[in-house]
Amino acid sequence: MDHDETQDTTRTAQADDSSxxxxxxxxxxxxxxxxxxxxxxAPFWEEALLGSINIHLPVxxxxxxxxxxxxxxxxxxxxxxxxxxxxxxxxxRLQAQLTQAVNQANAAADRVSTLAMMELTVALRRPGxxxxxxxxxxxxxxxxxxxxxxxxxxxxxxxxxxxxxxxIRQDFSRISTRIQWAERGYISxxxxxxxxxxxxxxxxxxxxxxxxxxxxxxxxxxxxxSGDLAGAVSTVQQxxxxxxxxxxxWIEDANxxxxxxxxxxxxxxxxxxxAGRTTPQKLGKT
Length: 286
Prior knowledge:
This protein is an all-alpha fold. It is built from nine helices and no strands. It has helices at residues 2-52, 58-124, 131-140, 147-154, 165-184, 189-193, 213-225, 229-236, 243-285.
């Protein structure tokens, strides 16, 4: 009986050992499967899991820092773009204001120049000097173009004034009468020359035939009467010899009158042109 009990105990122990071995093998297989599954799926959940428990790998930390840097740069870029847009808008306003200021300055300078032209035009058509008007025009209009030679020609008369056309005509009539008297032997040529004791420069003139002096003077007088003062000057310059000295001052004054009339006419044309440009602008504004 005791022998049988011993055998039963032995068989029971063996059976328990077999069951334990089987359970251990099953657990090992299960753990192996779990390890395999964890290894295969770790890339998909490892970072989130470790981040949730505040465990970060070096690569993850670098990636996080890089992401924060990129995000910071993006925010800074947005701020810079906003600032650039505001600066561009402000620059556009400043450019518009500058353009408006330049246009206003140009318009003001144009008005001042036009006023100076009007003043000189009036001064050239009345007796007396025009020194201030000429200086104002030169200051207000730096680029005088083809007007400059004409202005230089009349500048010596700026204080005293250019003789009027009527004065030029009267002076020619007196000189012509004296010369014709001298040609006929009534008076001497020297006495004619002394009629104008203020000698000025005498331009070299081509020699002329003395016998036709009277006819030349008559032709010049006709031209002066018809208003062709420039033609009369050209005709009178044909007279040479001793009469040229008596005519020198008159020729100089007549040339100055011609130049003054040309300046006045050109200035008047420019005034009309500027008025034509200004009127449409005013109509557009209204």
